[in-house]
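INFO batch 0412 | record 1 of 1 | parsing
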Amino acid sequence: MTPDDYIDALEEPRRGEIRALHDLIRETVPELESQVGSDMLAYGPFHYRYASGREGDASLISLSSRKNYISLYVLCTTDDGYLAEQYTERLPKADVGKSCVRFKRAADVDLGVVRELIAEAGRIGPAAEG
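INFO prediction complete | emitting tokens
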């Protein structure tokens, strides 16, 4: 399945919102490979290996259409913690967790701020290994 297949399978108005967010991500971080994985769009896949020996695959940024929300995952940290959490005040209508920004509609968030979050994640790269 391609990203376009994933988006095309969604019903409106969610299809248009996910398409717009996908386009925003592609414009902001075109260097990140896009693919579909685990029922979401994924950008910037990477392999991780912890000192404990645990390892796996993840993506720097992921976008998912859930039943009640659009979820934007940003697996990026700074010295101050998870990058997404640092945008909580700038995304007041979103429910922001450590690495997830959830919102009901794209109109609920300032897409300029979302673009800044994505661009910063692209500059920093994946979360540091634990």
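INFO post-check: The first strand starts at residue 34 and ends at 37.
INFO record closed
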